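Holo prediction. Input below; ligand is oxidized coenzyme A.
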Amino acid sequence: MASETINVPDLGGADAVEVIEVSVSIGDEVGVEDTLLVLESDKASMDVPSPQAGVIKKVLVKVGDKVSQGTAIVEMETAGSAAPEKAEAAAEQKAEAEEPKPAPAKAEKPATSQSAQQTVKLPDLGTGDAVDIIEISVAVGDEVAEGDTLMTLEGDKATMDVPSPYAGKITKLLVKEGGKVKSGDAVAEMATQAAVQSTAQQPPEPETKPQPPAPASEKPAEKPPQVAESSSAPGTLSEAEAPAADVYAGPMVRQFARELGVDLRNVQGSGDKGRIAKEDVQGYVKQALSALETGSPAPSVSSGAGAGTGIPQIPDLDYSLFGEIEELPLSRIAKLTAANMTRTWLNVPAVTQFDDADITEMEEFRKGLKAEADKRGVKLTPVAFMMLACARAMVAHPVINRSWHSSGEKLIQKKFVHIGMAVDTPRGLVVPVIRDVDKKGLWDLAEETAAVAQKARDGKLSANDMQGGGFTISSLGAIGGRGFTPIVNAPEAAILGISKASIQPVWDGKAFAPRQLLPLSLTYDHRLINGADAGKFMTELVAMMGDIRRLLL
Ligand code: CAO
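Structure of the complex:
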């Protein structure tokens, strides 16, 4: 074991450069070329890699310090056998590559004495114009895997990562940050892994070569965003695929965020000028995980293709600065509701359709049953009629009774008619399910609705009582309102909102007649139900409620 002081390498002429990130702390074990510091000059930021493997014993600089070549950074305990000249050369090359100054007229040392070089050329960028290099994510000496980001380019409308077409070692950088490049330009030279391992053989062609991508306008959805998934094929300059290049973060932090699937645009930087540090990304992920546990809307962490919605968090505001406040804890049901609502809102492309059912005759019939209802001890409200009408219409239009399968490969068609009923309770909103509604009569439905609503208010529903629904009814009729847009109770495909019935003048062809109209709003998942299907379902509902004899058909 030997104790070594690690100094700032040649910074390519730059002097008094600011330390913007100290990437190690006392006790950390670091490998050769692990980042010790991130420095930032007025032109570029650069990582200072460790020339030795060892354990950090002392950190001699802090964020905000100005350093120059030779400034002592850390003291390390090393095994004592590393090749300092080689590592220092790598550190020098790294600093030179990242500092936008004229390319050093310095001979590059090949990765191995007999290895062949591959020249990395840019793919078709979908534009003939030169685009800016806004970040170079690698340095000479870096080992990269196929698909690792080499650099970030920025065109007029979007930014893109350029992934490495090979696994291997960067031996030369042919471009600089701040420079301009075009499709087909050579940007780096690499010793590919095969070349390094097998010096006797010709380096084989890499299995995956960069595929020239079509312009974004021609093939918008064919490639997943590179922020969420690493891909061996270079992306196109498509806005939808734009990675987080407009954020202020160093290459290591970007790499770290990419590994975790974090969209850096959603992370608040705690550093100078809002620079994002590794700790900010860690804090963001921690927050996302705890949000998942508590059910509150989580910040976006992508988990594969199609994920990574990029929804920014709504910042908390300290309202106590403006007057008296009280913090009210959320009930378990309220937390679950919030999580479900948010998930549905983010996942379901929903449409709401409105109509009025003329329930004048239905109401006469219902009121005529009042004495019998009292005798039976049952409260017959419009909701029971709506339940039955929905069940009949669901049988006639099975598309309403489908669910989307998360695989995106199939739909689930339910052959039973179970309907959920939203019930407002002191603990929050719950949705008990009434089973086989199509096989039940009005009295049964009225009785069962009242019974489950009471059970819900008493907090006695079991998990089973709330499962298996294929459709939901949310009635605010007893409360009021002329219409609302309910949120689908996913994975169900649709929900019917019922508002307060009122007497309205309706033109009967000769005169306005007073009719009792019931406002209905049907929200449906447009992935499962198209507008025509929803329209037919709603029209049938309205017809049945307008003439309840149709319930018998
Ligand atoms: N228009 C006019 N009056 C209506 C009506 C309508 N659409 N629907 C019901 N009413 C009347 C009933 O006829 C009853 O009046 P009478 O006592 O004179 O007959 C009165 O309103 C009260 O009805 P109710 O609430 O006891 O029973 P209900 O069958 O209408 O509703 C239930 C049952 C469980 C849906 C209701 O109690 C409830 O919890 N509603 C809230 C649902 C909710 O919160 N939805 C929002 C979900 S999304 O946030």
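DSSP finds ten helices and 27 strands in the chain. That is the main takeaway for now.
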